[in-house]
Protein 1
Amino acid sequence: MDVIHSVAALRERLQREPNNVFVPTMGNLHEGHIQLVRLAKPRAACTVVSVFVNRLQFGPREDFDRYPRTLEADCRKCREAGANVVFAPDEREIYPEPQTFVVEPSELQHVLDGAVRPGHFRGVATVVLKLFNMVRPHAALFGKKDYQQYLVLRDMVRQLAMPIEIIPAETVRASDGLALSSRNSYLSPTERAEAPHLYTTLQRAADAVRLGELHGRVELQATQALAARGWQPDYVAVRRQNDLQPATGEDRRLVVLAAARLGRTRLIDNLEIEL
Ligand code: PAF
């Protein structure tokens, strides 16, 4: 496995690869990322993993500075999982000049996480477009834990006619249900014990939706249940899977999404519902 830091060296290395499959990450890899690498491997002769903490997608008061950077361990895990290339650029390599051209995602950037984190999906879409131009993959994998991110990138590729297949992967969970996330490492032991309740809340909300409960009522009850346990919820929302708009009576493919803070840590999770 090659560990490459510059765009020039990456392009040279990938010249000899007729096609490659790509797993973009911000590092601090956990089993969810490694699962993406395992799913990627059979799809092409060359699996590329990028490790880059993208300043552009963090708000001014968010955790860019304390985001865990663990490149050595990440490379070891990628090697064990069978990746062929790790691309770990520094900021000057990705942003050699101020980024004045950006990707403005569709409607999706104004709802849910887009509303709570203004500019976040612009930052994600912009860096992923740049990474795609550097790696030139024929397919890329994204975990469905970041459901809205997956939809933004799926729509970007389709609307900009990029010849890249976007492949979603199921969320990987700890045995107690907590969705794996690099940010779980911020949780204190007490918070870690509480954290699986985000998923429990989603499961209860999904059950209520299946029983025909009004979505507004489900959202309110779930938000109140989290707040009663000491969380600070940003939202619990029942939406259509395809565009995250509120569902009508006709919609059968739904997703319930939640974002909430536990102490200083913001966690997100979601659960798809097929009616
Ligand atoms: O999901 C992530 O880790 C990041 O948002 C991504 C897609 C690598 C872009 O920085």
Protein 2
Amino acid sequence: MYDGVYSDKVIDHFTNPRNVGEIENPDGVGTVGNAKCGDIMRIYLDIDPETKVIRDCKFKTFGCGAAVASSSMATEMVKGKTIYEALEVTNKAVMEALDGLPQVKIHCSLLAEEAIHAALWDYAEKNNIKIEGLRKPKKDVHDEE
Ligand code: FES
């Protein structure tokens, strides 16, 4: 039915997404969209104030299957990392972990990366800290395609 376009991991994370939902009073929250396809993703972070470790991460995605699978994988990957290490969770890293995405779906994983960055940015602003290497996220990732 999928004609081999999507890897087993993508199908698994789409049909059984991890970390769906919201965190009440999150330490950081970020929302990004893509005006072209109309998809929107929101990421919530729960961060240990002492160690800066991401204790929990949840997402809500109003978007395509690849965006759901990317958010699911990305949230799994940032959990247990510090806010600094979380920057390693790039869209490339997410795609690799998913065993690849079709060319036209690469921007879906970019949405996950940007939503995490937006949530980290929110946390940094609220706590008046600087996360080295983190740039101000865009609300719309469409421009980068
Ligand atoms: Fe836009 Fe997937 S088609 S996020």
